[in-house]
Fold this sequence. Notes:
Layout lengths: L2 H23 L6 H35 L25 H12 L4 H10 L4 H8 L7 E3 L1 H11 L4 H4 L3 E4 L4 E9 L18 E8 L1 E10 L8 H25 L10 H7 L3 E3 L6 H17 L7 E5 L1 H9 L16 E2 L2 E5 L14 E7 L3 E14 L3 E3 L5 E3 H4 L1 E14 L5 E7 L2
Parallel strand pairs: 2-11, 6-15, 7-9
Antiparallel strand pairs: 1-11, 3-4, 5-14, 7-10, 8-9, 10-15, 11-14, 12-13
Helix pairs in contact: 1-2, 3-4, 3-8, 4-5
Amino acid sequence: MIIPEIKAAMNALLEQINAVADKEKAGEKLSADDIANFESLTTEHSELQAKLSRLEKAQNLAVQTATKIDDTGLTNAPALNLRKPPEDYPGSKMARIALALMAADCNVSEASKFAQKELLDKDVAMSLSTASDSGGSLVPEAYSRDFIELLRPQLVVSQMGARVVMLPKGKLTLSRQSGGATSSFRGEGQKVNASNVKTEPVKLNAKSQMTIVPITKEFKGRADIDAEKFVLDDMLAAHAQCQDLAFLRGDGTNDMPKGLLTIATEAGRLVPYVGDVELSIIDAYLDSLILAHKNSNSKMLSCGWIVSPRTWMKLYGLRNAQGIKVYPEMESGTLKRYPIRDTTNVPSNLGVGGDLSEIYFNAFNDVVIGYDPMFDINTSEDATYYDSDGNIQSAYANGEIVIRLMGASDIITRHPEGVVQGTEIPF
């Protein structure tokens, strides 16, 4: 019998006991059968009472042993988690992987537990658990693609219209027409020459890029969106800064991509500035860069200018003799009908005197950026690294955690006539 049934039986017995007792209270003399029945009922009730007491005591003990209590009187049973799972947004998974590795001292197995219990992200926990033997975290391709999409608006080359492709195996071969195709009008019955298009391969080979992001230790163990955003923004900014510089001025050595400057140099597409810094000479020079495209039969798709901040300000402030701005269209981000952007990755301290710059005027539809979709994240509290000034820094001494983000990318232009480089710019 269970507790409710015992109590019901005890109540029924008690009614019968009270009925016998009421006879005696009313002055009736109890018969021998009444007395025997009374003794039997009270004995049975006592037995049920003892049984009930034992069952209730066992139930109380079961409850106590089910919830372990420590010396402080606090239960070790799982706490009720009232937090909602975090909302996903582009780049959130990459940031959470980094936060989990920071919290777990780059122990991927423990990082997976942190992602599950603290970040409340089962997807990130699963991705970390599958990489538990790697010594770091191989970021799933879906998360990497989100990160790459966030990189694009931070790269001036991408802003100008360069196309982006994935390099699943780190390589991709494209073809470009290099000549040989012929076309002519022929009369009836005349022979027609075959048209054989000559092509040559243009290869994208992903070059490894290591980004070092020092983060204060105060973010260790945090699982909030503020920490996510901080880590994500720092990874994006550092990765984009390095890529932008390489895509513009990389020389192709030491596993660095050949940037647009090197491509233009090898193709003989450099146009040096000659003359004084005067309005008429500047305007004619800009026209010459445009003309270099037209004279080489460039398709001029997605053409645009990339200049240094100094050059941008000079062009923006140019005025004629009447005090009227020469290029008022720069208010809306164009110069001579083509988009213009400025970046500090175009230097203004070149040349013997350290006062020259460059102007990039390219058909960016011909520019292709390739990304290997496989990224890797690692963290360390003991690492040493070089800062932007070339000085060695210690994460331990600085109270930092260093995030190391590994990726790979490359850049090419399909047609060299789509690249024109202005050099020796004195303004």
